[in-house]
Amino acid sequence: MFRQVLSTSTRALRSSTRAYAPSAAVRTQFAPAPINFARSQLQSSRWYSDSTEAKKEGEEAKPATEAEAPASPEEELKKKLEAKEKEVIDWKDKYLRSVADFRNLQERATRDQKSARNFAIQQFAKDLVDSVDNLDRALTMGQEKMKALEGSDKKNDDLASFYEGVKMTEGLMLQTLTKHGLERFDPANEKFNPNEHEATFMTPQPDKEDGTVFFVQQKGFKLNGRVLRAAKVGVVKNA
Asked: GO CC annotations (predicted)?
Protein backbone atom coordinates (compact mmCIF):
# COMPACT_ATOMS: atom_id res chain seq x y z
CA MET A 1 0.00 0.00 0.00
CA PHE A 2 2.74 2.36 0.96
CA ARG A 3 4.67 1.58 -2.24
CA GLN A 4 1.69 2.40 -4.42
CA VAL A 5 1.26 5.79 -2.77
CA LEU A 6 5.01 6.57 -3.20
CA SER A 7 5.04 5.64 -6.88
CA THR A 8 1.90 7.68 -7.49
CA SER A 9 3.51 10.79 -5.89
CA THR A 10 6.66 10.39 -7.95
CA ARG A 11 4.74 10.28 -11.21
CA ALA A 12 2.75 13.35 -10.28
CA LEU A 13 5.95 15.29 -9.46
CA ARG A 14 7.58 14.36 -12.79
CA SER A 15 4.53 15.40 -14.77
CA SER A 16 4.40 18.77 -13.03
CA THR A 17 8.07 19.38 -13.77
CA ARG A 18 7.56 18.77 -17.50
CA ALA A 19 4.57 21.08 -17.52
CA TYR A 20 6.53 24.03 -16.09
CA ALA A 21 9.73 23.56 -18.19
CA PRO A 22 10.13 26.53 -20.66
CA SER A 23 10.05 25.77 -24.30
CA ALA A 24 12.85 26.51 -26.77
CA ALA A 25 10.86 29.33 -28.32
CA VAL A 26 10.37 31.00 -24.98
CA ARG A 27 14.08 30.69 -24.16
CA THR A 28 15.01 32.22 -27.48
CA GLN A 29 12.63 35.14 -26.98
CA PHE A 30 13.62 36.14 -23.44
CA ALA A 31 17.27 35.02 -23.32
CA PRO A 32 19.83 37.88 -23.48
CA ALA A 33 21.48 38.27 -26.84
CA PRO A 34 25.20 37.31 -27.01
CA ILE A 35 27.62 40.25 -26.98
CA ASN A 36 30.07 40.56 -29.90
CA PHE A 37 33.15 42.08 -28.20
CA ALA A 38 35.22 42.34 -31.41
CA ARG A 39 32.59 44.42 -33.19
CA SER A 40 32.18 46.66 -30.16
CA GLN A 41 35.91 47.31 -29.98
CA LEU A 42 36.07 48.19 -33.70
CA GLN A 43 33.18 50.62 -33.39
CA SER A 44 34.78 52.27 -30.35
CA SER A 45 38.18 52.52 -32.03
CA ARG A 46 36.66 53.98 -35.17
CA TRP A 47 34.77 56.57 -33.13
CA TYR A 48 37.92 57.77 -31.35
CA SER A 49 39.88 57.85 -34.62
CA ASP A 50 37.24 59.98 -36.29
CA SER A 51 37.20 62.35 -33.32
CA THR A 52 41.04 62.86 -33.43
CA GLU A 53 41.08 63.49 -37.17
CA ALA A 54 38.28 66.00 -36.84
CA LYS A 55 40.20 67.77 -34.10
CA LYS A 56 43.35 67.98 -36.25
CA GLU A 57 41.40 69.26 -39.21
CA GLY A 58 39.91 71.95 -37.00
CA GLU A 59 43.33 73.03 -35.73
CA GLU A 60 44.74 73.18 -39.28
CA ALA A 61 41.78 75.12 -40.54
CA LYS A 62 42.03 77.67 -37.73
CA PRO A 63 45.45 79.20 -38.74
CA ALA A 64 44.41 79.23 -42.37
CA THR A 65 41.33 81.19 -41.42
CA GLU A 66 43.38 83.59 -39.33
CA ALA A 67 45.96 84.08 -42.15
CA GLU A 68 43.26 84.77 -44.66
CA ALA A 69 41.72 87.39 -42.42
CA PRO A 70 42.49 90.90 -43.82
CA ALA A 71 44.80 93.12 -41.74
CA SER A 72 43.29 96.13 -40.08
CA PRO A 73 44.19 99.67 -41.28
CA GLU A 74 46.07 100.30 -38.03
CA GLU A 75 48.32 97.28 -38.60
CA GLU A 76 49.04 98.28 -42.20
CA LEU A 77 49.87 101.82 -41.08
CA LYS A 78 52.14 100.46 -38.36
CA LYS A 79 54.02 98.29 -40.87
CA LYS A 80 54.50 101.24 -43.22
CA LEU A 81 55.75 103.38 -40.34
CA GLU A 82 58.29 100.73 -39.30
CA ALA A 83 59.54 100.47 -42.89
CA LYS A 84 59.96 104.27 -43.08
CA GLU A 85 61.82 104.33 -39.77
CA LYS A 86 64.27 101.71 -41.05
CA GLU A 87 64.76 103.73 -44.22
CA VAL A 88 65.43 106.90 -42.20
CA ILE A 89 68.01 105.09 -40.05
CA ASP A 90 69.73 103.76 -43.18
CA TRP A 91 69.92 107.20 -44.80
CA LYS A 92 71.13 108.78 -41.56
CA ASP A 93 73.93 106.24 -41.29
CA LYS A 94 74.98 106.91 -44.90
CA TYR A 95 74.93 110.67 -44.25
CA LEU A 96 77.10 110.40 -41.13
CA ARG A 97 79.58 108.19 -42.95
CA SER A 98 79.79 110.65 -45.83
CA VAL A 99 80.37 113.57 -43.45
CA ALA A 100 83.10 111.64 -41.60
CA ASP A 101 84.84 110.74 -44.88
CA PHE A 102 84.69 114.35 -46.05
CA ARG A 103 86.16 115.64 -42.78
CA ASN A 104 88.96 113.07 -42.92
CA LEU A 105 89.69 114.15 -46.48
CA GLN A 106 89.83 117.80 -45.40
CA GLU A 107 92.19 117.03 -42.52
CA ARG A 108 94.42 114.94 -44.77
CA ALA A 109 94.54 117.68 -47.39
CA THR A 110 95.39 120.26 -44.70
CA ARG A 111 98.22 118.10 -43.38
CA ASP A 112 99.58 117.53 -46.87
CA GLN A 113 99.50 121.25 -47.63
CA LYS A 114 101.22 122.09 -44.36
CA SER A 115 103.86 119.43 -44.90
CA ALA A 116 104.48 120.61 -48.46
CA ARG A 117 104.78 124.21 -47.26
CA ASN A 118 107.08 123.37 -44.35
CA PHE A 119 109.44 121.13 -46.29
CA ALA A 120 109.31 122.75 -49.71
CA ILE A 121 112.75 124.31 -49.10
CA GLN A 122 114.27 121.09 -47.75
CA GLN A 123 116.60 120.53 -50.70
CA PHE A 124 117.50 124.22 -50.81
CA ALA A 125 118.22 124.19 -47.07
CA LYS A 126 120.53 121.18 -47.44
CA ASP A 127 122.59 123.06 -49.99
CA LEU A 128 122.58 126.21 -47.86
CA VAL A 129 123.90 124.65 -44.66
CA ASP A 130 127.27 124.06 -46.31
CA SER A 131 127.67 127.83 -46.68
CA VAL A 132 126.78 128.30 -43.02
CA ASP A 133 129.40 125.70 -42.11
CA ASN A 134 132.04 127.61 -44.07
CA LEU A 135 131.20 130.81 -42.22
CA ASP A 136 131.45 128.95 -38.93
CA ARG A 137 134.87 127.55 -39.87
CA ALA A 138 136.07 131.03 -40.85
CA LEU A 139 134.98 132.40 -37.48
CA THR A 140 136.71 129.56 -35.64
CA MET A 141 140.00 130.16 -37.45
CA GLY A 142 139.77 133.96 -37.00
CA GLN A 143 139.11 133.52 -33.29
CA GLU A 144 142.17 131.29 -32.94
CA LYS A 145 144.33 133.86 -34.73
CA MET A 146 143.07 136.68 -32.54
CA LYS A 147 143.76 134.67 -29.39
CA ALA A 148 147.30 134.00 -30.60
CA LEU A 149 147.91 137.73 -31.08
CA GLU A 150 146.49 138.77 -27.72
CA GLY A 151 149.67 137.94 -25.80
CA SER A 152 151.95 139.82 -28.18
CA ASP A 153 152.42 143.43 -29.13
CA LYS A 154 151.35 142.72 -32.69
CA LYS A 155 147.69 143.46 -33.29
CA ASN A 156 145.96 143.15 -36.61
CA ASP A 157 143.05 145.55 -36.86
CA ASP A 158 142.13 144.23 -40.28
CA LEU A 159 141.77 140.70 -38.89
CA ALA A 160 139.54 141.96 -36.10
CA SER A 161 137.37 143.87 -38.55
CA PHE A 162 137.16 140.86 -40.84
CA TYR A 163 136.19 138.65 -37.92
CA GLU A 164 133.43 141.01 -36.84
CA GLY A 165 132.11 141.25 -40.40
CA VAL A 166 131.95 137.47 -40.83
CA LYS A 167 130.29 137.10 -37.45
CA MET A 168 127.58 139.62 -38.36
CA THR A 169 127.01 137.90 -41.71
CA GLU A 170 126.59 134.54 -40.04
CA GLY A 171 124.17 136.01 -37.49
CA LEU A 172 121.97 137.59 -40.17
CA MET A 173 121.94 134.38 -42.20
CA LEU A 174 120.94 132.30 -39.18
CA GLN A 175 118.13 134.74 -38.36
CA THR A 176 116.81 134.49 -41.90
CA LEU A 177 116.98 130.70 -41.86
CA THR A 178 115.21 130.60 -38.50
CA LYS A 179 112.27 132.54 -39.97
CA HIS A 180 111.83 129.73 -42.49
CA GLY A 181 112.08 126.95 -39.89
CA LEU A 182 115.77 126.07 -40.30
CA GLU A 183 117.67 125.97 -36.99
CA ARG A 184 121.20 124.96 -36.03
CA PHE A 185 121.89 122.99 -32.85
CA ASP A 186 125.10 122.29 -30.93
CA PRO A 187 124.95 119.06 -28.84
CA ALA A 188 128.13 119.66 -26.81
CA ASN A 189 128.02 118.07 -23.31
CA GLU A 190 124.66 116.42 -24.04
CA LYS A 191 123.72 112.75 -23.96
CA PHE A 192 124.25 110.97 -27.24
CA ASN A 193 121.00 110.73 -29.22
CA PRO A 194 121.17 108.42 -32.25
CA ASN A 195 118.20 110.24 -33.81
CA GLU A 196 120.04 113.57 -33.88
CA HIS A 197 123.73 112.70 -33.55
CA GLU A 198 126.22 110.79 -35.65
CA ALA A 199 129.15 109.37 -33.66
CA THR A 200 132.34 109.63 -35.68
CA PHE A 201 134.63 108.33 -32.93
CA MET A 202 134.59 107.23 -29.26
CA THR A 203 137.26 107.75 -26.62
CA PRO A 204 137.56 107.43 -22.81
CA GLN A 205 137.17 110.56 -20.68
CA PRO A 206 137.59 109.86 -16.93
CA ASP A 207 135.90 113.11 -15.89
CA LYS A 208 132.79 112.51 -18.05
CA GLU A 209 130.03 109.90 -18.09
CA ASP A 210 129.70 107.27 -20.77
CA GLY A 211 127.59 108.34 -23.72
CA THR A 212 128.31 112.05 -23.30
CA VAL A 213 129.13 114.21 -26.33
CA PHE A 214 132.48 115.85 -25.55
CA PHE A 215 133.44 117.03 -29.05
CA VAL A 216 131.37 118.49 -31.92
CA GLN A 217 132.97 118.02 -35.29
CA GLN A 218 130.04 119.42 -37.28
CA LYS A 219 126.88 121.05 -35.94
CA GLY A 220 123.45 119.75 -36.89
CA PHE A 221 120.40 121.38 -38.46
CA LYS A 222 116.63 120.93 -38.06
CA LEU A 223 113.91 122.00 -40.47
CA ASN A 224 110.58 122.61 -38.69
CA GLY A 225 111.50 120.16 -35.95
CA ARG A 226 112.69 117.44 -38.33
CA VAL A 227 116.38 116.58 -38.40
CA LEU A 228 117.77 117.85 -41.68
CA ARG A 229 121.36 116.89 -40.93
CA ALA A 230 122.66 115.01 -37.90
CA ALA A 231 125.50 116.51 -35.90
CA LYS A 232 128.84 114.71 -36.16
CA VAL A 233 130.22 114.23 -32.67
CA GLY A 234 132.76 112.41 -30.51
CA VAL A 235 131.31 110.31 -27.66
CA VAL A 236 132.76 109.26 -24.30
CA LYS A 237 133.30 105.54 -23.74
CA ASN A 238 135.24 104.65 -20.59
CA ALA A 239 134.51 100.93 -20.38
From this structure: PAM complex, Tim23 associated import motor
Q: Are 237 and 204 in contact (CB under 8 A)?
A: yes
Clarify whether residues 89 and 101 are in a common domain: yes
| Edge-to-edge strand ranges of the sheet holding 231-236 | 197-203, 231-236, 213-218
Residue 182 CB coordination number (10 Å): 23
Global model pTM greater than 0.85? no
According to DSSP, residue 6 is labeled H
**Mean pLDDT computed over 224-230:** 91
Cα(134)–Cα(118) distance, integer angstroms: 25
Distance CA 42, CA 44 (A): 5
CATH for 205: 2.30.22.10
CA-wise closest residue to 205 among 223, 224, 192, 219: 192
